[in-house]
Amino acid sequence: MIEDLGFGTLWFPETAGREAMSQAGILLSQTRRIVVAAGSTAIYARDAVTTAAAQRTLEEAFPGRFLLGLWDSHPSLAEVIRGHRFGPPLPTMRAYLDALDTAPFGPPGTAASPHRVLAALDPGMLALATERAWGANPLGMPVEHTRNARAVLGPTALLAVTQLCVLGPDRSHTAALARTTAAAALPNRRTLLHDLGYEDVESLGDRLVDALVAHGTAADIARRVHEHLDAGADHVSLHLLTTTPHTPPTRQWRELAAHLLP
Predict the structure, then answer these.
(1) Is 81 helix (H, G, I), strand (E, B) or coil?
(2) pLDDT band at residue 105 using 50, 70 and 90 as cut-offs
């Protein structure tokens, strides 16, 4: 359905639930042209050799249609859930990329794939994304962050922003879920938000909620997409939140497609 509506890329995360590489293979096999982006593939979920083999396998079967997004995860997910020791994010990601590029496994005749981005918010990870990947995929940050990220990445690296959003008939209907979503996003973003000029982050005022979560009508969300593009993003994906998270938001996808796609 997403493909038939005209969307060019389907992004999905890896935190809980389906394993990312298997899910990507399923989605690719059921579509014809759309790019499938595993936007937050946790580096603690599989070793780099396994990731390299999986990526090369998908590249062989679906040339040019799989994008790997690598994420350094959270201490609780890495240690409590997966049983690993969580290392310093930047050197750990750099070492993982080294191992990924030299991995010996994969289909015969295939080489290390350049089709990757890093889930990056802070300047250090953004700089690493410029050095070792196509670019970066910041998730859940204000437009000001997009402008700063472009400055770090330079003019040529891919900046693919993921915007949190809640769609409804008007902002009064979407405000509560937008606030809940913004509150859940705060723990990993407090310092970055303060640096962007949001001084009283803990109070979660309306200005901060609106900056983190685009909410309201399809026109409101489309306006935020264009703001990110004007700030330097090459691509904007929408992480659509609803009050029924286990039901695909097909109506909302259709409504957004009508406002965003030619």
Answers:
(1) helix
(2) confident
